[in-house]
Amino acid sequence: MECPSGLRSLSLLFLAGTAASSSVLRHRDPLPAGFVNAPYYPTPYGGWADDWSESYGKAVDLVSQMTLAEKVNITAGRCVGNTGSIPRLGFPSLCLQDGPLGVRTTDNITAFPAGITTGATFNKELIYERGVAMGEEFRGKGANFYLGPSVGALGRKPRGGRNWEGFGSDPVLQGIAGSQTIKGVQEQGVIATLKHLIGNEQELYRMYQLNVQQAYSSNIDDRTLHELYLWPFAEGVHAGVGSVMASYNAINGSAASQNSYIINGLLKDELGFQGMIMTDWLAQISGVASALAGLDMSMPGDTVGNNIPLDGYSNWMYELTRSVLNGSVPVDRLNDMATRVVATWYQLGQDKDYPPPNFSSNTADRTGPLYPGALFSPSGVVNEYVNVQADHKVVAKQVAQEAITLLKNNGSFLPLSTSSPLSVFGTDAQADPQGINSCTDKSCNRGLLGMGWGSGSANYPYLDDPISSLKRKVTNVTYYATDSFSTVPAPTSDDVAIVFVSSDSGENSYTVENNHGDRDADGLALWHGGDALIQKAAATYSNVVVVIHTVGPVTMESWIDLPSVKAVLVAHLPGQEAGDSLTEILYGDASPSGHLPYSIPVSEDDYPASVSLVATPTLSQIQDTYTEGLYVDYRHLNKAGIKPRFAFGHGLSYASFSFSNASITAATPLSAVPPARPAKPASPVAGLNATIPAAAEAYWPDNFDRIWRYLYSWLSTSEADAAYKIGVAGTQTYPYPDGYSSVQRAEGPPAGGPSGGNPALWDVAFTVSITVTNDASAKLGGKAVAQAYVQFPSDAGVDTPVIQLRDFAKTGDVVAPGESATLELTLTRKDLSVWDTVTQNWVVPAPDGRYSVWVGSASDDTPVVCYTDTLVCESGVTGPV
Ligand SMILES: *[C@@H]1O[C@H](CO)[C@@H](O)[C@H](O)[C@H]1NC(C)=O
Ligand SMILES: *[C@@H]1O[C@H](CO)[C@@H](O)[C@H](O)[C@H]1NC(C)=O
Ligand SMILES: *[C@@H]1O[C@H](CO)[C@@H](O)[C@H](O)[C@H]1NC(C)=O
Ligand SMILES: *[C@@H]1O[C@H](CO)[C@@H](O)[C@H](O)[C@H]1NC(C)=O
Ligand SMILES: *[C@@H]1O[C@H](CO)[C@@H](O)[C@H](O)[C@H]1NC(C)=O
Ligand SMILES: *[C@@H]1O[C@H](CO)[C@@H](O)[C@H](O)[C@H]1NC(C)=O
Ligand SMILES: *[C@@H]1O[C@H](CO)[C@@H](O)[C@H](O)[C@H]1NC(C)=O
Ligand SMILES: *[C@@H]1O[C@H](CO)[C@@H](O)[C@H](O)[C@H]1NC(C)=O
Ligand SMILES: *[C@@H]1O[C@H](CO)[C@@H](O)[C@H](O)[C@H]1NC(C)=O
User: Is Hydrolase tagged as a keyword (predicted)?
Assistant: First the structure.
């Protein structure tokens, strides 16, 4: 999302064009052959999952007391990310706040490491702890919603601008990390918002902009959607996420914010989602159609549907009230929308002592406009500077450190000795000299790259930069604060050069050094001449250590094999704790334990052409067709037999780990088709009054002090009466989409169930236990990661990737030389299934067949295999890739 204050929508709106009427259906270009836009109606009511029933009971009770205007009031915001309130019933305005790595646009917070960094730790417990700390900070600032985590973009496109907000280019890594984050955040009573549903894999042309440009269409086949892109959303719903955000783009030609198949069908029926779904900011393009397709909240409430920015125009609010009175939006749909919002608030316990917001996204001053969206507003205290940091820098540093991924360490060059003189190169080693928060939303790559740019960024409270940290550690440090190689005194063989380089990306709301969010200008090359800087350093020094701060894969062929390039560390996007987290690794106070959350290719040409950016601006809709199917990142490279430079999951340690003593245990017996889903209970929402209410419920109250340009849910008496007349007459009908129905389906889809889908999908089928030992001769201890990849039986009769990550585990403690630790990995029924497009269910293609479970420290280093048919494990084997 973007623009917390709504004010930034100005820049979007001045793009010109003619006014789009919210009721006009946009023309759509034909989809590529084979893609259909299937209707799915009506929106299934929420409230049929056991673990939400108490919250729905309370919510239905509250909603039953609401007027029409009150129900509508809580389904959209008014200029900022704040919903309307219901003063009469004591229901507060809810505050929605970015972003995935910390509370955005405020102070006295922690700037945590980014999602991609978090994924690289492969440490489930630590990911959860980061979530706990972020949840405490959002709550402390009084934000009801944490607008994260991001699990879409999944990372299909290596150049995609926002991949770094998520956890890596694999659905299981995204799913586990997303769920751990959700649990940590929501245990603090904060509503997490899983985003962006779905197919939001590039930034360029992501938005509908008036009638000038349509958002691109991500054309995704059913199986690929289920096995890759929807997977982490299913895991997040299973973890109990309260809210979901729809993406800007279209899927199969239909905008994500009004795609009935995605929202009604997949999210609310198949995944049994009980919470509420909102738009991304300004993404709503219709009123009635989006309500029917299952949207529950429009954010920030105003839209780009009018030419004049922020003039109080909305597709919902007073228009939604009108649509209910005139019968176009059935009352039960509005009841369901309001109940979903209120039930989510109860589910997270926000009815009990939840603090109101004590910060402003709009200004850093203590006082400011109370209604920042209005041109004229009374002033008051808007910032209380509540310090929410507690000791969160400890977990932030731990994540930054455990993410650091050692790619190369020739001759065990690292760790360094403090007696070696250091020469440090590259502006990325130091904090931005113009100020650590000098670029709005980090929309520049100047100085250390600690996070990407856009709404996924946060202000630094301070920045521990690497050069300061190195100077604290080592006495003889010379820093060359430039990205072009300097003339240096002739080094001795003892001298060490550390070269800092970076690659940045972000949200399409800003262009940075010609990169429009995505890395469209720089591609996978290092920025600021980083390759040349490394080459020149390597020509002068015999000992070069490269440190890379990056949003994703970068190519390294021009220097990786140079003999003087002794060691390479990817420090990802470390956030505020960039310095000591790194120094301690460089000097051996801690051993690196990060692993790559994506592959690093030899060349960008190694990827399928279909994952390139679709970059041709056209007046029609750009078609982005996922012809590579399941074959992204390592799934593609393995299938095509292309060796990457560094494989997905790769990451070295100073310890010397070996795996042994593996065993596999069968738990739940498998059948081809899972046990039938539980019956779908009736929803209490069905008990709410679904008759068109009296027009008087929508009348403006007398003498209301209206704030100019704010959105309200009331209508004038004459407008309300006119709409009501149409509604009760029932003669003028809305042009409902093909396939529309208002009758609730009695049965859900076979794969469906409460909170994520058929619960049997999460039955544990097998557990694998493995012992990891640090060799007694190792000089140092470290934390070890085991990754489990499944290979489907060769006679399964269905095309599957060679191997797919299904679980991972990291040792809780450092394993000292000569010591061992045991790790456990689990495989669920879903992990061993494929999505069957005919039966629309998860099917185990060969229940008694030989699934090979490959275990190791990287996707190309799996020296242990366990077989599900014989329950035998072998060690010292060569993996399949
Ligand atoms: C898109 O089209 C494909 C191919 O017909 C279909 O399998 C898939 O379910 C469609 N997705 C949506 C969201 O309509
Ligand atoms: C809607 O919310 C606004 C802002 O909180 C409030 O002023 C107004 O009274 C609410 N309207 C209704 C119908 O409760
Ligand atoms: C701001 O948050 C703090 C801590 O949660 C709380 O004590 C305070 O009352 C809040 N301020 C306002 C105006 O709600
Ligand atoms: C009801 O109102 C909505 C919102 O203004 C409008 O889009 C729709 O066409 C109206 N329906 C009828 C039948 O007039
Ligand atoms: C943090 O809050 C204090 C007041 O508690 C304030 O003086 C300080 O300026 C705030 N920090 C920043 C970076 O704004
Ligand atoms: C620092 O290292 C440089 C390069 O090796 C060397 O020339 C210089 O004498 C050293 N300075 C000190 C104070 O040790
Ligand atoms: C590793 O270092 C040795 C010398 O210690 C050198 O011969 C070899 O080329 C280096 N290998 C790489 C890949 O840099
Ligand atoms: C072998 O693994 C089991 C768990 O399956 C564990 O209890 C045992 O300690 C391990 N043995 C060794 C020698 O590490
Ligand atoms: C349902 O609402 C309609 C319209 O407001 C009202 O006339 C009717 O009495 C209500 N029914 C019940 C059972 O409350």
Answer: yes
Instruction: Tell me the helix, strand and coil percentages in the chain, rounded to 5.
Output: 25, 20, 55
247: left (phi over 0), alpha (psi -120 to 50) or beta: beta
Does pLDDT of 6 surpass 50? Answer: no
In angstroms, rounded to a whole number, what is the distance separating the alpha carbons of residues 780 and 811?
15
476/423 Cα distance (integer angstroms)? 8
Dihedral sign for Cα 250, 252, 258, 264, please: negative
Locate 43 and state its tokens.
Answer: 């929106």
What are the residues whose beta carbons fall under 8 Å from the beta carbon of 115, sequence distance 6 or more?
100, 101, 148, 149, 150, 164, 165, 166, 167, 177
Q: Whose CA is nearest to atom 10 of ligand 6?
A: 476
First-residue to last-residue Cα distance in the chain:
38
Task: Give the residues surrounding ligand 7 with Cβ less than 6 Å away.
Answer: 410-411, 561, 563
Choose among 267, 546, 307: nearest CA to 429. Answer: 546
User: What does the H/E/C string look like for 802-827?
Assistant: CCEEEEEEECCCCECCCCEEEEEEEE
CA angle 61, 317, 275 (to 5 degrees): 45
Task: Give SS3 for 477.
Answer: strand
Looking at the predicted structure, is the pLDDT value of residue 203 above 60? yes
Cα–ligand 2 centroid distance for 709 (angstroms): 14
CA-wise closest residue to 22 among 170, 179, 210 = 210
Pocket of ligand 6 (CB under 6 A): 421, 476, 489, 492, 495
Identify the helix (H) or strand (E) that includes residue 171: helix 171-186
Q: Any residues with CB less than 8 A from the CB of 701 and at least 6 apart, and which?
A: 714
How far is residue 396's CA from residue 185's CA, in Å, rounded to a whole number?
Answer: 15
Q: Is the pTM of this model over 0.90?
A: yes
233 to 77, 193, 225, 247, 650: CA distances (angstroms): 25, 11, 11, 13, 26
Confirm if 680 and 749 have CB atoms less than 8 A apart: no
What 3-state class would DSSP assign to 718?
helix
Amino acid code (one letter) for 472:
R
Q: Provide CB contacts within 8 A for 770, sequence distance 6+.
A: 659, 660, 661, 662, 663, 786, 822, 823, 824, 825, 855, 864
> Are residues 454 and 281 in contact, defined by beta-carbon separation less than 8 angstroms?
no
* Residue 835 parent element (H or E): strand 834-836
Task: Evaluate whether 133 touches 110 at the Cβ level (below 8 Å).
Answer: yes
The one catalytic residue in 280, 296, 520, 522 is: 280
Report whether pLDDT(707) > 80: yes
**pLDDT band for position 28 (50/70/90)?**
low
Which ligand has the nearest atom to the CA of 538?
A: 7
Distances (CA, A) of 591 to 622, 750, 853: 47, 48, 28
What are the pLDDT digits (tens) for 362-387?
Answer: 889 999 988 877 777 889 999 999 99
DSSP assignment letter at 348 = T
